[in-house]
């Protein structure tokens, strides 16, 4: 029973801290011991013991929060029979560092008890030799399942389903089902319903465990089963399935092929991971990070994860710079413009990021259809207009006091309002356009909107100043 | 059985689209009918019928994606017996608009069948009159539970737990438990375990339903129960509990007070909502939005949701502007500086946002302790240094070609590298400091880091240029 392994959650952080202290102590002792040719002592044993007391899911968490050298030390100390569970629990980036530290023999030992769907999760990071050897140790059914799982993408239902199916016929009594279940040693995790199939494995319905417990044992399965359950197909989008799990409060659900044949099962634990990862990825993508990063990844890896968007940003910043370059002459005439222009650009960027974050989030939740684009746009323009007038006036008055020029204040206020309107339009239209082009609206959206409001803000502000100066409305210093 | 109400998920978007088309049609017909004194026709009936076919959780979703007038029309058409479920499912912002459209009588009718924990969710948005009336209709136990639920914050376990407890003693046989369960009409949702208590309601363990099914009915509960389950306390942080649910793959878990007395129950559905909301709030907070916004909120509401951070941004932008103002004379001498300075600030902001997003995320997952601050700082500094040298050189060379001044190129490269280093330090230190001060590290972190890299970037770049010009290394145009 897994429950008995678990300790109360409150002391977890304390225990992590203790382990970190032990790690420091051990590292010191190790150095000392090596220098003086002494055997390793107390801290090693204590470390081992503390680790043995931890649930494997906690070890996975601990490994993620340790720098590489400590991480590998802990990994060596963890009992090998828990390797497999831990490998499946850690993030992709951390898993890679752990696998790199294992030889083929150890990897095969860790993976040999995995189910087909678990092996499929691990497969992309295994060498061909290891994968072949693992394949050959599987029976025909398991091998077929592995191949099926590998044939789907990670973001498809088929890539996330498992094969631990408990199924029954609909013409037996609940009593028979109860007797049948007692013959098992263990159930698949998250079994809240049993699948009801016919002799061709076509899904006829589901029998919720609670119906099995609530009803008279003499009733037939067909009399109490739900014959219209939520079902999924292997080629469906996994995130859509996760949203359905959340919406309908599901714990497990059947996956059927186009003929209605039961081929697998989805469970809430995979869906929770997916919901967290999806929102997380969205956040990272908006900030211009390519993927989830192991926080202790090597410097070089981190550089690669980040530089694509930095390069894009460099190009957009360069364009903004050229926009300013257009107005060299204007700035020379009134150098105060150089000091004020970043305010216009900055507020625009901030406001645009607020809008785009909200829109991207609402899109992920399917709250936005193209039908209501114009209403949204209208609302955002209204919000920007009010903010522009209010904050534009504030900063316009400040500019007037600082530089003693009412016309400069007016340029400030107008530019700010116009740039906020630009930010609102772009904040709505960028993600909408990206979705129409079949792209992820979160991807680099923050970098893109900032690019627009920078170049746009400089152009609007300096352009207005140029006009005011040309028409002699604004006095110049030069 | 809830399962029979649910339709396959794939057609949901289609059905939403159909309903939106019907809404447009109905709005047109209504106008026409009113003008010509005709009765309402087909589209109304069809709309009603389509809505009746939808699961209440889908209606909640639909309501969130409709503008206010359509939303209230749909709300009127929804059968009143589903009002309560829908109200509990929609987001806080949307719920407010729905409640505003109901009179006290309707609200009381919708809320009268709610459990104490559900009422507690609704309570903050109800008028005192309504709340009093609902309170008086409750029995003593329910009223005590409601008061208990209201005494905890939304982010505490006590604010999220429900009271649907199924409990048994440990000295009875599984057969007795099975017979006892059959006397119920319905189980609490998400019942994957039954709580085992003594006569003082002290929790002794849990009996997983699967143990009930797998084992010989003659065995005693005490023989098969798990006596060391994961437990929670009402005053614990709810997000920590959600992480424990995810880590240990829990479906339900007991909540006990300091004496070990069973007082409530947590279930995975609430935890999934919380995980999604928490990540979402983090994302919105980083962008400087105060709270989740109804995307069709009134303009005025949206303005209020956003302007606090805009005001902060205005102040920081003003500071950056004053930093530039310090170097008025330098810019006058070499106006190219005005065009180049936003590049340095912009790239710094982008890079800083990458770092801070990663750190904030890792903090939410408890992967970062103060113990590893310095290692992280070291890594981030390394990444920035490499990016600074590479991209700084690129832009330095571009600046050299554009303005024909190698010293300007050198200033560009150095300033970029230094600003990226600043961004790295601030990206690590800002969230660490906020946590040390007991604040949410996500809150406005993006605005803060941008402020640092803007002011810092301008100061570094213009300061270096000033030095180069003062020492006669850089030629001036003015």
Automatic annotation (TrEMBL), chains A, B:
GO annotations of cellular component type: plasma membrane
Domain CBS: 225-281
Membrane topology value: Multi-pass membrane protein
N-terminal signal peptide: none
Pfam families to which the protein is assigned, alphabetical: CBS (PF00571), MgtE (PF01769), MgtE_N (PF03448)
Keywords from the UniProt entry: CBS domain, Cell membrane, Coiled coil, Magnesium, Membrane, Metal-binding, Transmembrane, Transmembrane helix, Transport
InterPro entries: CBS_dom (IPR000644), CBS_dom_sf (IPR046342), Mg_transptr_MgtE_intracell_dom (IPR006668), MgtE_N_sf (IPR038076), MgtE_transporter (IPR006669), SLC41_membr_dom (IPR006667), SLC41_membr_dom_sf (IPR036739)
Compartment list: Cell membrane; Membrane
Top-rank taxon: Bacteria
Coiled coil stretches, renumbered: 9-36
Transmembrane stretches, start-end: 307-327, 339-360, 381-403, 409-430, 442-469
Main localization of the protein described in the UniProt heading: membrane
GO MF terms held by the record: magnesium ion transmembrane transporter activity; metal ion binding
UniProt similarity note: Belongs to the SLC41A transporter family.
Role summary: Acts as a magnesium transporter.
Quaternary structure (record): Homodimer.
Protein known as: Magnesium transporter MgtE
Organism: Entomomonas asaccharolytica
Gene: mgtE
